[in-house]
């Protein structure tokens, strides 16, 4: 069993919390764009009210532990490890509740190179607990706007976790998925599930647009979010996202393994 103290030490050593690689400049830019309702950072969430930059800064200070000082404009951003631990506990509790009722679950990530292993282990555990891990719309093409213009991606699943692949990249079972913030993949998946008259997910687990897109549609959604992802924390504050766990979402994939063990233990899903 991984103790809370050991995990806290790991969070700081791996820079999942504490001073993180995400820069203060990048975070503040995201808050400005979110206040302007830029879809690149709203991630499919339609806020119920206007959020000004100073309000977002206060929210992120409260939810993540970043500095609330608007005069602090450079250097690494900071995540409070205690807030990360509290978020992981709440995250595990939601998984446990879904496992008890054997709810259908959808996993999806916009960070497949980093987070696939974390979500895949959770998907395996939920399946072993009797939950249906849903995989609708396998192979479906999705047009997503990128900084290079509109590009067509394909939807794929690896160990029960949805991701999109870049044009021309097709390595089934591999983790060569594309990084994306778009909510379009989760919308396509949910549409396909409804069209196929199969079960709809009662819980969506992931990041970026997977969480915000599902939460916007009224589906329970939990996920991980960095300091430059204000949408998940706004969604949590407004009641559309059930849990947003603050941590650096782009460190080496191996650094998330202790988090996997901790969450599975807390959720009573350890094999």
Can you describe what's shown?
- By secondary structure, this protein is of the alpha/beta class.
- It is built from ten helices and nine strands.
- Strand 4 (141-146) and strand 5 form a beta hairpin.
- Helix 5 packs across helix 10 (257-266) and helix 7 packs across helix 8 (208-216).
- The protein is globular, with a radius of gyration of 17 Å.
- It starts with a helix and ends in a 5-residue tail after the last helix.
Main β-sheet, spatial strand arrangement: 4-5-6-3-7-8-9
C-alpha termini separation: 12 Å
Strand tally is: 9
SSE-based structural type: alpha/beta
Helix count equals 10
Which residues form runs of ≥5 with pLDDT under 50? Answer: none
- Rough shape? globular
Largest β sheet strand count, sense and barrel closure: 7 strands, mixed
The whole-angstrom Rg is: 17 Å
- Average pLDDT score: 95
Query: In percent terms, what proportion of residues is strand?
Result: 15-25%
Provide the succession of SSEs. HEHHHEHEHEEEHEHEHEH
Helical coverage, percent range: 40-55%
């Amino acid at each position: 069993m991984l103790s809370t103290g050991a995990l806290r030490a790991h969070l700081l050593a791996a820079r999942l919390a504490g001073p993180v690689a995400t820069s203060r400049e990048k975070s503040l830019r995201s808050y400005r764009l979110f206040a302007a309702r830029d879809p690149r950072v709203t991630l499919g969430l339609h806020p119920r009210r206007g959020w000004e930059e100073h309000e977002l800064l206060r929210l992120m200070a409260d939810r993540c532990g970043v500095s609330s000082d608007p005069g602090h404009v450079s250097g690494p951003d900071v995540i409070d490890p205690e807030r990360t631990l509290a978020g992981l506990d709440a995250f595990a509790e939601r998984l446990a509740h879904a496992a008890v009722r054997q709810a259908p679950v959808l996993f999806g990530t916009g960070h497949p190179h980093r987070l696939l292993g974390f979500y895949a282990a959770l998907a395996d555990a939920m399946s072993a607990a009797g939950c249906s891990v849903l995989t609708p719309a396998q192979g479906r093409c999705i047009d997503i706007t990128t900084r290079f213009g509109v590009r067509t991606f394909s939807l794929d699943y690896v160990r029960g976790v949805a991701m999109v692949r870049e044009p021309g990249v097709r390595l089934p079972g591999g983790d060569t998925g594309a990084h994306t913030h778009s909510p379009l993949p989760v919308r396509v998946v949910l549409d396909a599930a409804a069209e196929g008259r199969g079960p709809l997910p009662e819980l969506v687990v992931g990041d970026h647009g997977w969480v915000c897109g599902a939460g916007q549609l009224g589906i329970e959604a939990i996920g991980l979010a960095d300091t430059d992802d204000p949408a998940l924390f706004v969604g949590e504050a407004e009641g559309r996202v059930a849990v947003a766990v603050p941590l650096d979402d782009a460190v080496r994939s191996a650094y998330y393994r202790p988090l996997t063990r901790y969450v599975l233990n807390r959720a009573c899903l350890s094999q």
